[in-house]
Amino acid sequence: MVEQKNSYSYEDLLACAHGKLFGEGNARLPLPPMLMIDRIVKIVADGGKYGKGEIEAELDIKPNLWFFPCHFENDPIMPGCLGLDGMWQLIGFFLGWTKAPGRGRALSVGEVKFSNMVTPTAQKITYKIDIKKLLLRKFGIAIADGTMFIDGKPAYECKDMRVGVFPDGLAPAAA
């Protein structure tokens, strides 16, 4: 496990995806193309709207991203579920960053509101995650609110996103 930092490069995120950041059997990010983050620009344990943690991250939009040609032909937009997944990825990363042991699993989301779409002409997605509650017992669970911005304008708002990390044998059956 490497030293806890307050920002992470793309190379760091790939190390996490390969199990080298938080240790084997612990939280991992997915590999590209499912990795929906290029860098984490800020991660702190005591910031954010609720004072329990905050994450800010970015994804550079390139017109040749894998999902544009297939979603939809002649009307390319990023699937909304990928933006939501990017936020879940960050919450799972936060749990690994807090040294909570186990493999990460998205558990639920309370509310999702889409107000804008990511098109190939966009430049950058910015994610802002505010941790509301952090439970660290035999397993870890984080509950957070998140906003995804497209070129600085709010696009997706999520409330009560839940992600857990579970040591082997403790993961919920549906995960």
UniProtKB/TrEMBL annotation:
Its EC number is 4.2.1.59. Pathway: Lipid metabolism; fatty acid biosynthesis. The keyword Metal-binding does not apply. It is found in: Cytoplasm. GO terms for molecular function: (3R)-hydroxyacyl-[acyl-carrier-protein] dehydratase activity; isomerase activity. It catalyses: a (3R)-hydroxyacyl-[ACP] = a (2E)-enoyl-[ACP] + H2O. Keywords: Cytoplasm, Fatty acid biosynthesis, Fatty acid metabolism, Isomerase, Lipid biosynthesis, Lipid metabolism, Lyase. It holds the Pfam family FabA. One of its GO terms (biological process) is fatty acid biosynthetic process. GO terms for cellular component: cytoplasm. It comes from the Bacteria. Belongs to the thioester dehydratase family. FabA subfamily. Homodimer. This is 3-hydroxyacyl-[acyl-carrier-protein] dehydratase FabA. It comes from Ferrovibrio terrae.
